[in-house]
Amino acid sequence: MTDDSLTLASLADFSTLERLLKEQGLDALQAALGQLLSRTPSDALPQQETGPRVGARTVRVIQRALSLDAEFLRAHPESLFQCLYNRLRWFDAPDAAEHFVSGDRGPWSDPQAHVWQLANHWRRQWEARGDAAWVESLRPIPGPLEGNDQFFSHSAQVLCTAYSPSGAWLATGTWEDERNVHVWDVATGTRIQTMAGHEGEVRSVAWSPDGTRLASGSRDHDARIWDVETGALLHAMTGQEGQVTSVAFSPDGRWLAAANLGWLVRLFDVATGQQVRTIKGHEQSVLSVAFHPSGRWLASGASDNTTRIWDLETGAQVARIPAQTSVSSVAFSPDGEWLALSDLDGIVRVETRGWKRVPGEGGHARYSHISWIGNSRLGALTFNRAEVLDARSGDVLATRPYLSDGFERGAAFHPAGKRFALTAADGRLLVGDVDAAPVPTLLAEQDRVRNLWGHAEGARGVARLKQATWSIDSAGHADTLPPDYREAPLQPWRLSPDGAILACPLMHLGERPYRPGIQLIDARSREPVRVLSAPPKDIPPADKGGITSTLPMAFSPDGQLLAAALLKGAVHVWRVSDGVLLHTLRSPREPAAMVDFTPDGAFVVSTYESSSRMLLHELRSGTVAIDTRTRMHPALPYAAAEQAPCIAVGQGSGDLLLFDLPAGSHRTLHVSESPVIGLGLSANGAILAACCLDNRVRVFDTRTGGLLHDLPHASLAFSVAVGDGVIVTQANDMRTRIFDLETGVQHIALNGGATPEDVVRRRYWETLGDDPVAFHRRLELAPWAHFHDTMEETLILRDGLVLGRGRTEQDLLYVLKLHDPARKHEGR
Q1: How far apart are CA 558 and CA 712, in angstroms?
Q2: DSSP string covering 314-334
């Protein structure tokens, strides 16, 4: 296919794009779309006698969608339909508006909205093939399809940013662990360098005048100088008096100034990293520093409500400029005639000839960041907008509003003044035009997910967001749960196996001292059903109440009972239907770490970290059937056979205990000279696999005690499961290994971690790691489908409904649907 053969009409056939991508690659596809756009008048209306309308705007949106997923598509070209559909379907569809901040005008408001119709037309073509496997997003996903906005994603809050002198690159400093200084290519949005070394968040970054070096200052009391091309650390100026709040290179690149919360500014030789001067005089923390273009003076702003000017040859104070409040930003004009600084009511200008403050302030707000754009304009940031001001009059020349995220943000303005970069708590650095209208804001970007609760193949999941809690069923329908102000913060919820009842931990029941309890909620009506609490007689008089650690609780396999350790010394068991307390199971006088039922529901299992004990209570009698020692770290070595009444418990000695529950007897099996840290039992209890601290997994026949396999691992395996013909392990190197049960030969080592029990028991499972999430079908080694984001966690419910917490799009709640053609064939 030649570029000229791609027409507006041909875009109605999805195979046109698919064929071009397959035969010539993504770059050629983008080029062909560019050629088509150049031949299409920008104001041309979509024209199509039959089928969906396609116009110039459609082509631009397709181009942008491809660019947003370019890296993913190069690795997974088979996902072309999935990527385009998930973005175009939500672009201008009427039902998209409900997923964005109320009042935002979006493409759906355009009377010519039609892109979503093309996406649905393509979907019909795709699904008509009958073998189309793909992942659908049931909600809009981040990434504007119009305008010039770019987003550079980090895995933690972005605190500071700076353009290189040419404006071609951006540096960012973040809250990430160690790997928290980054360099980006602005044109492509590609991360080209990551510097590791700071042990605390990076609060300031600055470029050398020639753009070859980068300086960073951090909460770890360090300033560092990096080689931008190689990412190598050149110098570390450690042990400063407080957090380093601001760094700046001198105009000739010879000196680096570093300000800190210890009231000082230190001057370093860039070539050697040696300190050459300490500047003293501020009476509180120094927040910002800037060199005069001549290199003769240094300005520093501080929380003592002053800006001070220092002679760099002598270190003497030249001027003291009072302000009404802390001075968080200072900047010299390129010609050196003016100094600008932030103040309570706006921007203060100071003439540098006599260091005289000009009456009046510029702008109309308290600005946290100021920078010069040439000699006549100022870029400035306030809590909800970025502005470009006339430096002399203070008039606002351009403004770009944004929604505040509740955190102090940083900004950088491109040397040309049209573009700016804005930091954010969600890890997404926005790069956009100062005078552009803001793109519609996704509600999911404002209300990030904190926790996902539920169980694999369940009928429902619970998503705790920043501002709300959602109950989401296996069809993707979400309902907001009414807030309960007694809800225990950070405590996990539990769901009954059928998803009909939600269990929410409570901090107290209204009396003092506070008493923990459990609120049962009807999932369909979202109405509270009843509160489960311990009888007053079980509460010791000296007990102060409250939950100090995770509240262990669990539903029985049939959902009829709920067990919880509300208090030290007891596990209570209630009947869910009427809230009747059936058992008070006595336990050690310490917090329980875990409460669960055996797969047959006949026993309640509880563990106690302080004493390294595990108890099994028989439900019928309420008596202790097993009381044994076990190892609790790094994981609990416990396994229960799904179809047989037997369990295995690991020991720190390298032994494990095999319990026959009906008989109440047990056998000891010596596994290793190192502690057992993870166990897996086959469904019938005949095969047992044990992870040990010696980086090996050993497989036994439980009937004879014979060793079947000794499986070495390059990294510590901490979880294992035994399935039909396979053994699956998960290890610290974020790899999931699948072995042949009969021969012990390794089939594959998958990049990413997967829960071994999900691999052997569930219809769908996933691998999570540093790559985009990969979905698998039961026991299939090759990934069945991929999704473009990297995930922190996922929950796969019934019918292939996936709840995900994004990592690339940090903590974004995804609601996805796995479309499996095999399911359709099964239903025939």
Answers
A1: 38
A2: T--EEEEEE-SS----EEE-T
Q: How many CB atoms lie within 10 A of CB 750?
A: 22
Count of beta carbons in the 10 Å neighbourhood of residue 625: 17
Looking at residues 267-290, what average pLDDT do you find?
A: 96
Judged by average pLDDT, the poorest of 224-233, 359-368, 442-451 is 359-368
Residue 665, strand partner residues: 660
Task: For residue 600, give the nearest of 563, 635, 558, 545 by alpha carbon.
Answer: 558
Beta carbons of 710 and 698 less than 8 angstroms apart: yes
Q: Of 491, 490, 514, 485, give the one whose Cα is nearest residue 503.
A: 491
Give whole-number Cα distances, 66 to 57, 566, 806, in Å: 14, 52, 20
Q: What is the DSSP letter of 537?
A: G
700 φ, ψ (degrees, to nearest 5): -125, 155
CA atoms within 13 A on the CB side of 447: 14
Written as one letter, the residue type at 117 is: Q
Which residues sit opposite 564 in a β-bridge? 553, 572
Q: What is the pTM of this model?
A: 0.88
Whole-number Å distance between alpha carbons of 342 and 286: 14
Place of tokens 């890890």: 427
What does the alpha-carbon distance between residue 478 and residue 462 come to, in Å, rounded to a whole number? 9
Phi-psi map region of 562: left, alpha, beta (phi>0 left; psi -120 to 50 alpha): beta
pLDDT at 439: 85
Token readout for 804 is 């995900």
Angle subtended at Cα 549 by Cα 544 and Cα 551, rounded to the nearest 5 degrees = 95
**Which pair of tokens denotes residue 295?**
């290199």
What is the residue whose two structure tokens read 């310490």? 590
Tell whether the model's pLDDT for residue 229 goes beyond 80. Answer: yes
Q: Tell me the C-alpha distance between 85 and 65, whole Å.
A: 9
Mean pLDDT of 530-541: 81
**Bridge partners, 198 (sequence order):** 178
Q: What is the mean pLDDT of the chain?
A: 92
pLDDT tens-digit series, residues 502-515: 999 987 655 555 57
For the chain, domain boundaries? 3-132, 152-239
- For residue 438, give the nearest of 163, 59, 106 by alpha carbon: 106
> In one letter, which amino acid is 24?
Q
Per the listing, tokens 């030969």 go with: 745
Starting at the edge strand found earlier in the chain, the sheet holding 233-237 runs: 202-207, 213-218, 223-227, 233-237
The CATH class of 152-239 is mainly beta
Q: Which residue has the higher pLDDT, 785 or 825?
A: 785
Task: For residues 708 and 562, give the distance between their C-alpha atoms in angstroms, rounded to a whole number.
Answer: 38
- Tokens representing 485? 């102000």
pLDDT over 80 at 43, yes or no? no
Q: What's the rounded Cα separation, in Å, for the pair 587 and 569?
A: 5
Radius of gyration over every alpha carbon of the chain, rounded to an integer in angstroms: 31
Residue found by looking up tokens 């028989």 in the block: 618
Task: Answer whether residue 364 shows pLDDT above 70.
Answer: yes
647 within 8 A of 630, measured Cβ to Cβ: no
* 178 vs 17: which has the higher pLDDT: 17
Lowest mean pLDDT of 50-54, 340-344, 391-395, 453-457, name the range.
50-54
Instruction: Give percent of the chain above pLDDT 70.
Output: 96
Pairing, β 791-796 against β 785-786: unpaired
d(CA 127, CA 820): 11
Question: pLDDT tens digit string along 699-737?
Answer: 999 999 999 999 999 999 999 999 999 999 999 999 999
**DSSP assignment, residue 362?**
B
Q: Would you list the DSSP string of 497-534?
A: TTS-EEEEEES--SSSS---EEEEEETTT--EEEEE--
| pLDDT greater than 60 at residue 617 | yes
Residues sharing a CB contact under 8 Å with residue 109, sequence separation 6 or more, in sequence order: 97
819 close to 135: Cβ distance less than 8 angstroms: yes
CA 770 to chain centre: 12
